[in-house]
Design goal:
Layout: H1 3-16, H2 26-36, H3 40-73, H4 77-125, H5 129-134, H6 137-179, H7 181-226, H8 229-237, H9 241-293, H10 299-340, E1 362-370, H11 374-377, H12 380-383, E2 395-404, E3 409-414, H13 420-426, E4 435-440, E5 443-444, H14 450-456, E6 457-460, H15 471-476, H16 484-493, H17 497-502, H18 520-534, E7 538-542, H19 550-564, E8 568-572, E9 584-589, E10 592-597, H20 599-605, H21 608-618
Parallel strand pairs: 3-8, 3-9, 6-7, 7-8
Antiparallel strand pairs: 1-2, 1-4, 4-5, 9-10
Length: about 625
């Protein structure tokens, strides 16, 4: 390794060694070893290859010195040729071992990334909806990317570096001391001149890069939010493109300035260290030459010392930062484990059973519920706040009791924020009750398996969420094994057959982010088609026709008629005209059921339902006389 390469190596380690104040955790180490255990054979081979490579790295300079001595002593050409051949063999062996080392390193590193990412992804999917309503998506994605990669670097880089550099350093010192302890001592005395600038300049560059990373993250967040269809619409509506551009450009300019400063600091650092390294080499040649001329040292020994000095500086500077690198890797592991340690608030009970066969009833029995506090479902680091919000635990549903017999439709109406959607979310266990019970087919939903509960329930919300995938892919979420005929059948029943047939790629047409290439009514009908494909026994409609014009609402209502036919249903509706046919209407206010009955009965009672109905009629909705 040349002196310049040694300088670059020192800078790299210094830049990536970020001092951490967290204490070392034996528990964290045990968990790391648990993740490493499946890769133990490759790890053993990896470390073995590293040791052999270190041995060869020291052998080459020694052989080079012997060649010089052979030339000076006038040994036969065969001797020189043999030594040169051995250097060639060592070079080939080092190259081959380098390939093997890289293969093992990548296999271990990528395998660990796969294990960690899969573990985190699966664990996150088990978290309750409350987790996702609080967590900043970018922070969560960062755990799956940056921290996982930082964790695997502990094995692919740091571990091999510590072992290889330790062996190289020990062997180099032994050989150098054996050749000349005086020159070795002199080289060690010059080491601080080499290392201190590396730590200082490396830390400075690391700080610049962290600042640049912060600005890049902010730009990424800005682009992610502003380049989505809703974000772009909002910016255009409020006429802020110029302001947004100015904010983005300011960050981009700062990143540019940091890039220039970083490049100059790096160049000055490398130039200075290369100069120091060259001077150190000159000292070795000077002092070694002096001893050689006096007959106290062979000329070949001087050459060996000059070559070995780079083998001394590089591992020493790397090992000087090894502790901090290890701590940095441990922090990455701890940040990953922090996610894995967040216990899901809603879990499947041991011995959970399948939903009963046949038509299913819905029963809410004295249900009380309060949304969980942040510390139960989230992490401050994922919300990007210093301290979690301590609010929570305030009861929002009070003694909710009702029954929907098999095949019946129960409608929930009331003011915004009264608790209607919360009631609907308790049935599929998006949240769990605090007291009381929610039963499906006479069985507490907490005693049912997640799979059977999802198969039995279908939920359509007002936003009609779709993935940025094809029509086919969005439908197959409900029934992956569905064939072409089944897909076209549910599209026909959802009043979408003609539309999808007219699209450029039919079923394979991409619907855009959140389905924004479709109209609101088309999105809703596609989600209804997905529900029809799932064939659930129970349907929950949460404001499924909200924000639609009359034409779109009529089409969606026709599709909903297909979805509700023969199924037990809970329907949340703001437009009271859509729930007149309900078998039972519950009026929810402030988490209480204040009225219940059929449409005609509630109108005749002249209570809160009648008030809501008159308010909508006054706003222009066509009334339906009681008794119809």
């Amino acid at each position: 390794m040349s002196m310049e390469m040694t300088a670059w190596n020192s800078l790299y380690h210094a830049m990536n060694a970020q001092e951490q104040k967290r204490p070392f955790s034996k528990a964290t180490l045990r968990r790391i070893l648990a993740f490493a255990r499946p890769h133990r054979r490759k790890l053993t081979a990896f470390l073995g290859v590293g040791v052999i490579t270190a041995l060869l790295a020291v052998a080459a300079p020694v052989l080079a010195g012997r060649i010089v001595n052979a030339i000076v002593d006038g040994d036969p050409f065969a001797t020189v040729l043999t030594l040169a051949a051995w250097i060639g063999v060592i070079a080939v062996a080092e190259a081959g071992l380098g390939i093997v080392n890289r293969w093992l390193s990548s296999g271990i590193g990528e395998g660990l990334i796969l294990d960690l990412r899969t573990a985190v992804f699966d664990h996150v999917q088990r978290q309750p909806i409350a987790f996702f309503t609080r967590t900043r998506t970018g922070a969560l994605v960062s755990r799956l990317n940056n921290d996982v990669i930082g964790a695997q670097r502990a094995f692919s880089d740091t571990l091999s570096g510590v072992v290889g550099n330790t062996v190289t350093l020990i062997l180099t010192l032994i050989v150098m001391i054996g050749i000349s302890w005086q020159i070795t001592l002199l080289a060690l005395l010059l080491l601080p001149v080499f290392m201190l600038p590396a730590r200082r300049m490396g830390g400075r560059i690391a700080r610049l890069q962290r600042e640049a990373a912060g600005h890049n993250s902010a730009m990424s967040t800005q682009m992610t939010e502003r380049f989505s269809a809703p974000g772009a619409t909002l910016i255009k509506l409020f006429g802020r493109p110029a302001t947004e551009s100015a904010e983005f450009a300011a960050r981009a300019r700062r990143v540019r300035d940091i890039g220039v400063r970083t490049a100059m600091v790096q160049w000055l650092f490398i130039t200075a260290l290369t100069l120091v390294s060259t001077l150190a080499l000159a000292v070795v040649y000077g002092v070694g030459g002096f001893y050689s001329l006096r007959g106290q040292l062979d000329p070949g020994a001087v050459v060996s010392l000059a070559l070995l000095i780079t083998r001394l500086y590089a591992p020493l500077t790397a090992l000087a930062s090894a502790r901090v690198e290890v701590m940095s890797a441990l922090v990455s592991f701890e940040r990953v484990f922090e996610i894995l340690d967040l216990r899901p608030l809603i879990e499947e009970r041991e011995g959970a059973r399948e939903t009963p066969e046949g038509a299913l009833t819905i029963e809410f029995d004295k249900v009380r519920f309060a949304y969980p506090a942040a510390d139960k479902v989230s992490l401050a680091s994922l919300e990007e706040v210093a301290v979690l919000d301590t609010r929570g635990g305030t009861e929002v549903l009070h003694e909710i009791s009702f029954t929907a017999a098999a095949g019946q439709m129960v409608a929930l109406v009331g003011s915004s924020g009264a608790g209607k959607s919360t009631i609907a979310q308790l049935l599929p266990r998006l949240y769990d009750v605090d007291s009381g019970a929610v039963r499906l087919g006479g069985v507490d939903v907490r005693d049912l398996t997640f799979a059977s509960l999802r198969d039995s329930l279908g939920l359509v919300t007002q936003d009609g969420h779709l993935f940025h995938e094809s029509v086919r892919a969005n439908l197959l979420l409900a029934q992956p094994a569905a064939d072409e005929a089944e897909l076209w059948d549910v599209l026909r029943r959802a009043r979408l057959e003609e539309l999808v047939a007219s699209l450029p790629d039919g079923l394979d047409t991409i619907v855009g982010e959140r389905g924004y290439r479709l109209s609101g009514g088309e999105r809703q009908r596609l989600t209804i088609a997905r529900l029809l494909l799932a064939r659930p026994q129970v349907v929950v409609l949460d404001e499924a026709t909200a924000h639609l014009d009359n034409t779109s609402e009529a089409a969606v209502q026709a599709a909903l008629a297909e979805a509700l036919a023969g199924r037990t249903a809970i329907v949340i509706a703001h437009r009271l005209s859509t729930v007149r046919a309900a078998d039972q209407i519950l009026v929810i206010e402030a988490g209480h059921i204040v009225e219940r009955g059929r449409h005609e009965e509630l109108l005749a009672a002249g209570g809160r339902y009648a008030e809501l109905y008159r308010t909508q009629f006054a706003a222009g909705e066509t009334p339906v006389p009681a008794g119809q």
